[in-house]
Amino acid sequence: MNNFIDHNYITHLITQAQSTTAAVIDTILEKASRMQGLSHQEVAQLLFIQDAEQKERMRSIASAVKKQIFGHRLVLFAPLYISDHCVNNCTYCGYRRDNQFPRRHLSQEEIAQEVKALESLGHKRLALEIGEDPKHCSIDYILESIKTIYNSGDIRRINVNLAATTSENYAKLATANIGTYILFQETYNAQRYAELHPQSLKGDYERQLFAHHRAMEAGIEDVGGGVLLGLSDYKFDIIAMMIHNEVLLEQFGSNFHTFSLPRMMPAMGVSLETYPHLISDEEFIDIVAILRLAAPHVGIILSTRESKEMRDYLIEHGVSQISANSKATVGGYGEESSVSQFEISDERSLYQTMYDLMADGQLPSYCTACYRKGRVGKIYHEEVTAGRIAKLCTPNAILTTLEFVLDHGDERMQDMALPFLIKEIQNIPDEPIRQVAMQYYVRILQGERDLAL
Question: What is the pTM of this model?
Answer without folding.
Answer: 0.96
